[in-house]
């Protein structure tokens, strides 16, 4: 089969690799219809030191299952969780593989679990790592694999509600999904900060108010709100954005650092955190733990998400799709279609 292989030096290739082997008892093989390029894929592209096969966001059709799989059969239309566990421990049985006793894993982030930017992907613990696609478009299902659950988890952690002024810093797919979730939860006002005009327009279509990219964000948000945002989402993760997010929060505010965006050496202005009584939340989630609350809202039509996903590129054009994602055009998710 074909698969994207990323080599050191930001070298993206489509290569022939072996098909997934026979399924273990609880595993499944999925023929991929759509695979997303995540921001974490781009970070690994820039910094990776060994060749790897990326991709933890996928929508597809089950083609083979192990003897212990009960929910799926060949032909089942599914989307997958970016993060998987053993499927057997108490946490996995409770749909929370983030706390898996054997350690949770992300598809495509290790040689023993190749990613989904390929014709086929092997999925362990398939009964707990896959969800029926139902009537969702492929684009919406793709967002349910990672970006939308992360935005949802952040809004739940911050308990966003009608009395809250919200700021979202960074308008990639995760940031845009956070905007959509906060809008659905009835936030009083949602402000957004991003240097890219098309990204700001995308957020505006979701109900947000863009800030001026030429002026300091904390000063603008204090002027608009009379003291700062009650809830702030950082969806960038560099030292400037984290500091900006914290300095934009009101006294007693809540700040969410979304997903895996935050770099390991990012400093945090703790004096500001203490003086303002801020609460910081690191937000990384197992999508399968979020689906029970989120999927019914998507099914009910509470979100208009397809515009967040760009038109798919053929798998053979993966290099160009990665170039578009690196250019961050419009904040969109850039998918590949095998």
UniProtKB/TrEMBL annotation:
Keywords: Metal-binding, Oxidoreductase, Zinc. Transmembrane segments: none annotated. Residues 173-298 form the Alcohol dehydrogenase-like C-terminal domain. One of its GO terms (molecular function) is oxidoreductase activity. Residues 26-126 form the Alcohol dehydrogenase-like N-terminal domain. Pfam families: ADH_N (PF08240), ADH_zinc_N (PF00107). This is Dehydrogenase. It comes from Streptomyces cadmiisoli.
């Amino acid at each position: 089969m074909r698969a994207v292989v990323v080599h050191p030096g930001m070298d993206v290739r489509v290569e022939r690799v072996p098909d997934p082997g026979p399924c273990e008892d609880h595993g499944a093989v999925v023929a991929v219809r759509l695979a997303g390029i995540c921001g974490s894929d781009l970070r690994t592209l820039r910094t990776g030191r060994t060749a790897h096969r990326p991709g933890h966001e996928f929508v597809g059709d089950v083609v083979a299952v192990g003897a212990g799989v009960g929910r799926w059969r060949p032909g089942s239309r599914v989307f997958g969780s970016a993060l998987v566990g053993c499927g057997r421990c108490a946490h996995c049985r409770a749909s929370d593989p983030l706390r898996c006793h054997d350690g949770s894993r992300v598809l495509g982030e290790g040689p023993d679990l190749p990613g989904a930017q390929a014709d086929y992907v092997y999925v362990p613990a398939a009964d707990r790592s896959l969800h029926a696609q139902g009537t969702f478009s492929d684009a919406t299902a793709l967002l349910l694999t990672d970006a939308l659950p992360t935005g949802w988890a952040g809004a739940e952690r911050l308990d966003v509600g009608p009395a809250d002024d919200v700021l979202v810093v960074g308008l990639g797919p995760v940031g845009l999904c956070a905007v959509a979730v906060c809008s659905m939860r009835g936030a009083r006002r949602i402000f957004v900060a991003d240097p890219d005009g098309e990204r700001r327009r995308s957020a505006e279509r979701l109900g947000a108010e863009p800030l001026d990219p030429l002026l300091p964000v904390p000063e603008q948000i204090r002027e608009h709100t009379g003291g700062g945002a009650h809830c702030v989402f950082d969806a960038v993760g560099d030292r400037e954005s984290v500091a900006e997010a914290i300095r934009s929060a009101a006294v007693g505010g809540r700040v969410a650092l979304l997903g895996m965006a935050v770099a390991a050496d990012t400093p945090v202005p703790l004096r500001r955190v203490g003086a303002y009584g801020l609460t910081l939340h690191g937000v990384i989630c197992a999508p399968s733990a979020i689906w029970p609350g989120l999927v019914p809202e998507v099914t009910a039509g509470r979100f208009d998400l397809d515009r967040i996903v760009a038109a798919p590129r053929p798998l053979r054009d993966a290099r160009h799709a990665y170039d578009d994602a690196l250019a961050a055009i419009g904040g969109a998710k850039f998918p590949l279609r095998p």
